[in-house]
């Protein structure tokens, strides 16, 4: 039985000489692996060129609950993402976000709210002209809300520290090593107000931005099982 759904491409991996495996986060089924032909035959309704990272697609798919790799019947592009594919800064962000999401989004059931957030983020990245240096910080912090690990950022007081293990501000230094000191905690308190609309207003140095992304990824690592290092992060360190 075939189903129509929307999908955001996460990444692609080699399967054999004729096919690759494309990992897609769909509106109706969560993250799904699909068999994608490498070439576009005359009778094929699947163009592999459409499946670049973060592409937003309309899909018709076969979905069997016990099958590990599902099949595609039809696919077409929902919107042309010209800037994401041509602007070098945005291309670098796509590489990073593709790797990050591939490690964060595991096999899940349908999550329309999460899908809408991802779709909005891709559309914002396509259209944004200013504030790109803060886009990945805004996205990663915002994503915690949809993964159930959003920290409690209320009750901040000057001089306190943020307990990353328990996800809250505290006036006492924790007995473990996973906490932010007062200066870093102040940054986090400021970032609690950041979103895609105002991210261009947050002025940070390269060193501060790199420090924040390191701490955010550590937070993810503490709260998500088996979250490895992000190889493409070094590109963003140099870029921003």
List keywords for this structure.
3-stranded antiparallel β-sheet, 5-stranded mixed beta barrel, alpha+beta, 7 helices, 240 residues, single chain, elongated
> What string gives the helices and strands in order?
EEEEEHHHHEEEHHH
**CA-atom Rg in angstroms:** 19 Å
Helix run count: 7
Query: Structural class of the secondary structure composition?
Result: alpha+beta
Task: Count the beta strands.
Answer: 8
Give the terminus-to-terminus CA distance: 47 Å
What helical percentage do the residues reach?
25-40%
Polypeptide structure, described:
36% of the residues lie in helices and 22% in strands. The protein is of the alpha+beta class and 240 residues long. Strand 1 and strand 2 (19-26) form a beta hairpin.
Write a concise synopsis of the structure shown.
This protein has helices at 82-86, 88-104, 112-127, 135-147, 182-191, 206-223, 233-239, and strands spanning 2-14, 19-26, 30-37, 56-62, 69-77, 161-163, 168-170, 179-180. It has 240 residues and is of the alpha+beta class.
List the helices and strands and how they pair.
Elements lengths: L1 E13 L4 E8 L3 E8 L18 E7 L6 E9 L4 H5 L1 H17 L7 H16 L7 H13 L13 E3 L4 E3 L8 E2 L1 H10 L14 H18 L9 H7 L1
Helix pairs in contact: 2-7, 3-4, 4-6
């Amino acid at each position: 039985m075939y189903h129509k759904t929307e999908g955001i491409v996460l990444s692609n991996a080699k399967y054999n000489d004729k096919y690759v495996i494309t990992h897609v986060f769909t509106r109706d089924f969560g993250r799904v692996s699909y068999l994608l032909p490498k070439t576009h035959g005359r009778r094929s309704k699947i163009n592999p060129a459409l499946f670049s990272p973060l592409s937003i697609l309309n899909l018709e798919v076969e979905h069997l609950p016990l099958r590990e790799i599902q099949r595609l019947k039809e696919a077409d592009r929902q919107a042309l993402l010209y800037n994401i594919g041509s602007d070098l800064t945005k291309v670098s962000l796509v590489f990073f976000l593709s790797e990050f999401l591939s490690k964060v989004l595991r096999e899940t059931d349908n999550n329309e709210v999460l899908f809408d957030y991802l779709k909005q983020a891709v559309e914002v990245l396509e259209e944004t002209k200013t504030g790109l240096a803060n886009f990945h910080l805004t996205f990663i912090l915002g994503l915690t809300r949809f993964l159930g690990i959003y920290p409690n950022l209320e009750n901040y007081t000057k001089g306190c520290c943020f307990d990353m293990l328990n996800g809250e501000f505290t006036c006492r230094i924790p007995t473990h090593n996973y906490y932010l000191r007062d200066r870093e905690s102040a940054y986090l308190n400021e970032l609690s107000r950041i979103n895609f609309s105002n991210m261009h207003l947050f002025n940070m140095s390269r060193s501060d931005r790199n420090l924040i992304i390191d701490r955010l990824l550590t937070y993810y690592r503490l709260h998500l099982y088996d979250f490895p290092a992000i190889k493409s992060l070094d590109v963003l360190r140099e870029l921003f």
